[in-house]
Inverse folding.
């Protein structure tokens, strides 16, 4: 039985050219299914990925990063704007206006569309299912498994983008409850077609994609999709740190956890700082800058964890002898952690026997003496 799921999610991926970017994602979805990503010890999806997905094969899949207004003059899409996107990607959807309003997508400045067609093989009915309800329950399982798969692809896309592109989150006091992100799910199954809203705030962290960064995003997407079934805890923590369009300074803790997850348990913070500037810097100034960023980040982490200081988002942070804003400092830390994760991902891809991201003393030796 063939099913189609189209997930329209509020996103803030800005491109200077302001044009829709289309990514052919069939091979990425096939890779996730072949590697049985649902056996990973954690999930990026909110929807339950049920056993029905085990009989599924990808027919086709595409990701569309939609056209968005420039960041300097933001405007919302409105109901008519979302209707046009719906008409393009799921023309058989009906009664769209109320669903759009309920989803909140009309207040979004941009939409990313993930469209997947799956072929589900025959599966054994659950013996507890009443015979007259068996097909309907089977369709529900296909719906939520398909949605869970789409959400995993959304997280995969977030990882590829946010490991390569600068973020633009707003840092403020108790900002997490202010984060808004809606989505619409269109599902076409063997029995019926559905269109319903779904919350999706964790997919709305803003990023600015420069045109020359897109090839690197696609390269990272390819590499991540081949490793997505592995317990990549640093990537999981990194995306948890960037889980909304509005953040609190406490999210810095998850960035530090993501960095520490690249090293063995109980690794000293001074070694992590040293490893970071050794592996990433090209000159003395950059090495000193990276060391200063991480030294300040660890000091702030300790203050937050022990309750010594509460960062409101309006503080002035001393970095390298000069003041900087929380927004700028958070982006500095994000950049260092992203580059370290990318370094570990390259190592993982070169060593298929590895099962997680790990950097060791041997990597530093090989970097200094190749």
């Amino acid at each position: 039985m063939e099913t189609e799921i189209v997930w329209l999610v509020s996103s803030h991926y800005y491109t200077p050219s302001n044009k829709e970017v289309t990514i052919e994602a069939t091979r990425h979805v096939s890779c996730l299914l072949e590697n049985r990503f649902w056996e990973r010890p954690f999930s990026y999806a909110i929807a339950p990925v049920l056993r029905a997905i085990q009989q599924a094969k990808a027919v086709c899949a595409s990701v569309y990063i939609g056209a968005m207004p420039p960041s300097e003059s933001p405007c919302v899409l409105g109901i008519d704007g979302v209707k046009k996107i719906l008409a393009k990607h799921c023309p058989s959807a009906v009664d769209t206006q109320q669903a759009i309003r309920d989803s909140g997508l009309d207040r979004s400045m941009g939409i990313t569309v993930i469209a997947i067609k799956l072929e589900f093989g025959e599966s054994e009915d659950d013996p507890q299912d009443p015979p007259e309800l068996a097909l309907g329950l089977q369709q529900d399982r296909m719906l939520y498994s398909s949605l869970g798969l789409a959400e995993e692809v959304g997280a995969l896309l977030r990882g590829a983008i946010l490991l390569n592109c600068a973020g633009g989150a707003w840092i403020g006091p108790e900002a997490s409850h202010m984060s808004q992100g809606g989505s619409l799910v269109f599902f076409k199954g063997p029995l019926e077609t559905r269109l319903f809203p779904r919350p999706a705030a964790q997919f709305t962290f803003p990023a600015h994609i420069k045109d020359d960064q897109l090839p690197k995003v696609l390269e990272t997407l390819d590499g991540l999709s081949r490793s997505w079934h592995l317990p990549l805890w640093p990537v999981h923590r990194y995306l948890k740190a960037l889980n909304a369009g509005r953040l609190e300074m406490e999210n810095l803790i998850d960035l530090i956890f993501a960095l520490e997850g690249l090293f063995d348990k109980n690794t000293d913070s001074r070694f992590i700082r040293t490893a970071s500037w050794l592996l990433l810097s090209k000159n003395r100034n950059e090495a000193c800058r990276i060391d200063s960023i991480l030294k300040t980040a660890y000091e702030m982490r300790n203050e937050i964890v022990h309750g010594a200081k509460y960062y409101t988002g309006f503080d002035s942070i001393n970095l390298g002898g000069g003041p900087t804003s929380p927004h700028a400092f958070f982006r500095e830390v994000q950049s260092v952690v992203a580059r370290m994760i990318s370094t570990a991902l390259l190592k993982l891809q070169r060593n298929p026997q590895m099962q997680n991201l790990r950097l060791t003393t041997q990597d530093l030796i090989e970097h200094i003496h190749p």
Summary: The mean pLDDT is 86. The chain has eleven helices and 13 strands.
